[in-house]
Each structure stands twice: as C-alpha cells, then as structure tokens.
Amino acid sequence: MRTEPNLTRLDRLFARLDREPERPASLETPRMSPHRIVLFGSTLVFYVLIVVAVINTSWLVRLDWQLMFFRPYQQWQELHAFIDYYVVLGQRGPTAVMVAAWLGWRSWRQHTLRPLLMLGTSLLLLNVTVGAAKLSMGRLGPHYATQIGSNEMWLTGDIFPSGHTANAVVTWGILAYLASSARARRYLSALSAVVSLGVGLSTVYLGTHWLSDVLLGWAAGLLILLALPWFEPLVTRAEAWILAQRDRFLPGLRGRATAPAPAGAPTPLPQPVPADDEVPVREPVGAVQHSSRTGAHFSTQRHTLRSERSPVTPTGSRRPAHADPATRTARPAPARPVAGG
User: Fold this and answer.
1) What is the pLDDT of residues 214-233, one digit of tens each?
2) Using N-to-C axis directions, what is the helix angle for 163-177 and 182-206, rounded to 10°?
3) What is the pTM of this model?
C-alpha cells in the first residue's frame, strides 16, 4: 500500500516558492465588463461632485474646517506614535518597493512580466492624473490655511486630492486586481479597502489633509484600478516586445519548459562521448590484471554494451585453438567389423 508523505506547513510553503515548469494557462485577465463600466462612471461622477463642492465652498468645506478645529491629534494623543508609522503604508516609495518585490516573484514563478508591467502602468497613471489635479487646483493644507472658511484653492498648494490615499488604493488594490483566484481577489480587495481607509483617516488625524482631500483621493485611486482593463492589450504587446528583445540580445536566457521528473525517479548521469578520432582500445579479458576487487569496481574505462563487444579468445585458455575450416581434414570413419570374416 502506497502512502503519500505528510507535508508540514513549512514544506508546503517552500514547495509553493518553487518556480512552475511553465506558464499557467489559467491566468485570468480582467475585462471591462458592463458592471465595471457602471462603477467607473459612478466613481467619476463622485469625483466631479467633490471638486465642484470644494470649488463652490459648500457644506463639505465647512466640515473640513470643523475637523481642523477639532484637532484629533490633540484629542487622542496616545494614538499619535502608532499613526505616524501606519501612514507609511500610503507613501509611494516604501509601498512600491514592497509590492514590486511580491509581484516580481509572481512574474518569475509564472513566467510572465504582466504583474510588474501592470504595477508600472498603474503607478504611471497615478502620477499623471493625481499630479496634474494637485498642480492645477493648488489647494493649501490645514496647517497652511490663510483664511477661515475658505476653500484654499489656487494658492500654489499640492494636497488636493490626497496622494497618500490614492497611492494606498492603487498600490494595495493592484494585488487584488492581479489575484489568481476569485477567493483571493475578494480577500485582497477587503484588505486594500481597509488599509486605504485607515491611511486616509490617518492624514486627517495628523492634520495634513482636509477630509475632502481624502474623499477625492479614494475616488482617484479607484478610477485608476477600474480603468486598468483598458490597458491590458497595451501591456500584452509590451510584454511580447520585451521578450522578443531579450531573445534577440540575450538568447542564452531564453527558458525552455521541461516536464518535471517523477518523484523518486533516479537522475541519469551524463555519459562522456568519445571524439571521432578516439578509438577505444579493447584488450583480451585475460590480459587485464585487477589488483583488488575495489580497483575493478572503480575502473575508469567506459562500459560497453553486450552488442558492442567483439568475441575474443581468452589468453591461456585450456581449449586448443581451432584450425582454419579450409585446412581441416575429415577423419575417416572407423571400419565396422564384418560378421563371419
């Protein structure tokens, strides 16, 4: 009865870290479905409404000032040290390095550049869209406000929308976007939502952003994630071009998928191939003198198959050598005695 070995959790972890022999065929590519288009349109409308509400100095601006005067960092001072570290989850540099390391391993394991290319595409879209909005609206933050009750727009600021919040949405949301299963996508979506929500509220606590900045940052990051399927064909062409350039200039790095050997099968050792001008010299069996049993076992001569061996007559054999068949003479048959002679 054959039993499978009991793998520990650590064994399963190291087994998962191994590279797959070939690119999986079940990698899903999100498409721009009607449901996603509806979400994209709704988020875009929400984005525009926030901008219009701030420009018109509506109730949202008054709420911003009320939270600023409340000064949460003074109301709950015991949280200040923790939030100073937690808000790093929204900084572009550290989060991009952590996520790029994970997606780099995914790219290596699955033989595809798509995870890294999608991360680069999302960060490029984030820098262009959020950066353009910050510079065009130029809103000042709570610590630099000039007039109570004003919207602080077009005063050479750069906080509207919140870059920390938008970066948290995109950087952690890309993990859910690139998840290989629906279950993992749900869990990672919930995790990225909680992290981005906490990062946005942390900036309000520290007084570095208005609440409206955080709302617009959530909308800006979500718009980028929802728009990524439109860039999938471009990423596919970019991956094909990069691999073609690799095969052109670095042909030795082109990987060939090989089927894994079955468990427990012996690994054959490479046999040396003699050159054309090297003819193996065969000696009679009796001429080889083995000093010991060990020396015969570790002989350096190449082992020949039975079909390759030529029959030889051992030296010192007790059987006399046969004469040439042409020179052999037939012996006369013994004469039979004649009866009665």
Assistant:
1) 999 999 999 999 999 999 99
2) 170
3) 0.68
